[in-house]
Amino acid sequence: MSRLAVNVDHIATVRQARLAAEPDPVTAAALAELAGCHGIIVHLREDRRHIQERDVEILRKTVKTRLNLEMAAIPEIVKIALNIKPDMACLVPEKRRELTTEGGLDAAGQKKSLKQTVAGLQKRGIAVSLFIDPDARQIAAAQEIGADFIEIHTGIYCNAKTPKAQDREFDRIIAAVAMAENMGLGINAGHGLDYTNISRLVSIPEIDEFSIGHSIIARAVLVGMERAVRDMLALIQRGPV
Ligand code: PXP
Q: In which domain, by residue range, is 10 found?
């Protein structure tokens, strides 16, 4: 059965909106683990818009499952990863102005530099995953580069506007999984997965792990709303203490 790794970036997004101390992604990660998830994912972006170095450092000490650091393959962040030593590094493309990661990494177009980065991380005992589109050229490049895993970008499947478009993208994912499996690559998948579109993907047992953030945090905010309001109301109605 595929596992679930929870991305807690958006907890930090809410915290950074006020530059406050809460909500703390470290607490969210602990609760996600108590709920049974198999891993915690954070993306330390170059612009530090949500996750901060402090979060990754503390998570390294507190995560009891596995810590996966999403990161751009740039010297500043690679240095931090080598220092903190997450269990896995997932290399992603990163643009300053994007709202979230857009599209997979062009592994085929930067084999030489990625090979060096991947080898450096692996030497420190960090497994490396490349976030790529379900594309034969990119999968072949991932193997050539020496990645341990690929993470298949499921965004196009998730954003498909028609059943036909979704079918087409699902078939691409199936073909990508078969190819990566044949090559001995570990296979993760993520981006845009939610409580509806996950159902079809769980029919692919070769997917080791799903990486899910937005939909889980979005639901957490809503299912926790009633309790949060009741708790505050109780304090107000109790009067001074
Ligand atoms: N995988 C990668 C490489 C990502 O960049 C993201 C977004 O941070 C995710 C998975 C999770 O995507 P979502 O937040 O849409 O579940």
A: 3-238
